[in-house]
Amino acid sequence: MPDVENVIIVGSGPAGYTAALYTSRANLQPLVIEGFFWGGLLQQTTDVENYPGFPDGIMGPDMMQKFRDQAERFGTRFITDQATKLELASEPGGIHKVWVGDDEYQARTVILAMGAEHKKLCVPGEEELSGSGVSYCATCDAAFFKDVPTIIVGGGDSAMEEAIFLAKFASKVVIVHRRDEFRASKIMLERARSIDNVEWLTPYVVEEFLEGDGPLKRIARLRNVETNETRDLEIGGAFIAIGHEPQSEIARGQVDTDENGYVTTQGESTRTNLPGVLAAGDLVDHTYRQAVTAAGSGCQAALDAEWYMRDTPEVPTPEGMPEGDLAEAQWSPAQRSAAIPQH
Prior knowledge:
By secondary structure, this protein is an alpha/beta fold. The chain contains eight helices and 19 strands.
């Protein structure tokens, strides 16, 4: 039978590693199942200039290495592999199970920090220019495109927010959208339309991104969806704002999620609908999605896990029940009553 961990953290990035730092400093000896591509979205980011404490900026992968090293210094253990299955207990004090392939791990608490992925256009050149002309976060990268023309791809509120922010830096922002109508709210559309250097190009889609020969170095090849006419725009950069995909698949059907797949938490806490299961970072945040807010929620999840273990007694093995059969659903009412203290 596997040893029961105090805390298993599924995922990495600012939320997962901060949760690991706090729980390891609380002497809870967390186990982090960090995934093959550990570090979250910051592993795909170049310069990070808006995280406190780095006045000269830092490369995203370097920042994540520092987060990881700091957690490891205090005793965090890591499995650099993917969690493949969860079996989360529904009773207070129950044991949660996490699988990595055929290997089973058990814990009193689980912190879910799998993050979210940018939705991508999946067109030629996008991957090659990612982090070098193609970006998914104007708040993060707009300052790198000062006084050059750019495009925003998308038609929702996120695209309008990105355009409004980017317009403070770029010489021109062209919003490219596949329809003449926009999903964005009326107020966001009005704000974007009121900005002099924001232009609109519909109904167009991006066919590919190309390296250019001119001073701007990048070309967006666009196609009119009605006429199939193509046109090339010489740009300094492109921002893709078509949404995010929370990486919650492994937990769906057990923890509550909203209509977009984000894990929902209770009040201002990181508690999910299951006792001892916490969620943090971009997995729950569809509003801010910043490294600093993810790290903050990782801290909250660690504290919530610590408080849960402090206040919740462990469920002992019922007398006469084999060690390998801890599934509470198999207990008789008498065994359950004997095992769980009544208050």
